[in-house]
Every structure is written in C-alpha cells, then in structure tokens.
Amino acid sequence: MRFLSRFAATRRAFVAGVAGLAALASLLGASPVQAQTLQKIKQTGELHIGVAAGDPWYYRDPATGQWSGVGVLIGQQIAKNIGVKLVPVETTWANSVAALQSGQIDAMFVLDATEERKRAVDFPASPLLWYAQGVLAKDGLVVKNWEDLNKPDIRIGVALGTAPDRDATKRLPNAKIERFTNADETIAAFNAGRVDAIVFYHAVLTIAYSKIRKGSVQIPQPTVAMPTSAGVRKEQDPAFRDLLDAQFKQLYESGQTQALYSQYLRTKGLDPDKQPGVTKEALEK
Q1: Which of 163, 225, 265, 270 is most buried, by CB atoms within 10 Å?
Q2: Residue 12 above 70 pLDDT?
Q3: Model pTM score
Q4: Signal sequence span per UniProt (predicted)?
Q5: Which CATH class is domain 131-218?
C-alpha cells in the first residue's frame, strides 16, 4: 500500500523544489518557449498534460502502461470541448513546474495555487475541484464533528510531519495520536486495528478504502476544504489560462466535474453516492 506515501512524499518534494524555480522565474520572467500555448495547441491539435503517480488524480496501469484518473478524465473532456486530442506526458510532481516552463507540458491539473507556486507558474481563477481533510474511521465509529475524535480512548493515526499531522495535533489535544514513518505504515496500522481512524485528504483516503475495504471515509465538521487548480506557463497572452478558467467553471457548475470523479470511483468498485464528493458544496453540507 504505497499510494499514500507516494502522495505525501511527492507533495513534500514539490513544495521544496518550487521555491527555487519560483525565484528563477521571477528573475527571468515568462518562459519564451512556446509563449503562445493556445496557438500551439490549435496548430498541433494536441493538449499535453502532465501525469504523475497519485491516485485518484493519476494512475498508471502497471499491466498496460495506460494512464487514467480524475485528472486524465477532466483533461479528456476539456480536449473534447475545444476540439483537440489529449496527450498525457509522464512527469513527477516535483518536476511539473520545470516541465511547464520548458514547454514539455501545457498544463498540470490538480496543483494547489499557493502563493509560492504562483511566483513560478500561472493558474486559472476558478477552482478545478475541492478536497478536504477527512477521516477513514473504523466500522461503527461515527465522526460528525472533529470533537467526536477528541477523546482519550480514540487512537488516531497520522503520517509524521504531514499537514494532517500538524492539524490533528492542534485540533485533537485529548485524542491519542499515533505517528507513523509514512502513510503506508499508517494504513497498515489501521488495517491491523492498531488505530481507530486515520486523518488525511479525503480523496486519497477513498482510494485507500477501495483497497482494504474497512471502515468508512467521513468529513468531520467544521469542514477543512481546499480548492485545487491547474498550473500553466506564465505568458504575456493569458488566452490559454483564461480558456481553462472558463472550462473549469463550466464543468464545475454543470456538475460534470463531480460526474467525472464519480465515473473514476466506479472503476475502483465504489459507489460514488456513498463517498464524499469533490465540490465545496458537497463537502460542507
């Protein structure tokens, strides 16, 4: 069960590496490589998106080598909407900014638009989707509010040094928080019954549940929800960024974003109606 540790490790690597890239970008300005992204996409008839291991956003089938995931499905829908072909380009989360700046890819979906990242690449204004800190709780443990976990007899598993670790430490002072070297060990402890619940990002917990089929993924109140977006190159002409902004808004407001997420969960043998969604409205209700 390496999917969660890969997610956490690549996220940390990306944050560490983007600072240097952001400083370089601020000195050099927008990359001259393929400066007019939208024009290039129209000329070639191809939209190149970065794909990197991180289920449910991107998943590479080890048998076929084919990429799937929510990011791929959204990319395919946008490519269809603008009349071009989607081309997945394998990269890593840590290298995605460099891949954007060099022109290797046109967009990297499911990147959070932090201030640090905004100094290196550009982002549409509209969110792509939302995710929240959630809980994979053992059967019979109902977590409507974070306070339901804030008890001395509740054992909470977290991956050491992650944002959910820091937040759970502040939010749940009375709970027994057990820290593990990585997220894989955290999942293994939950599977073995050594902890009662795991705190992590809800979409990744949903994939964990699809593998172990124990417990349930819940979103405690008050909801800690965050938007995510897509990184694109900084350009003098923001036509491609603005096109994605319009596409994101249309997909989100029409319900297609949630529908594509649900479509992917079905490939994991899950009933999407029984799992938390990826819209702010669904997560906060």
Answers
A1: 265
A2: no
A3: 0.86
A4: 1-35
A5: alpha beta
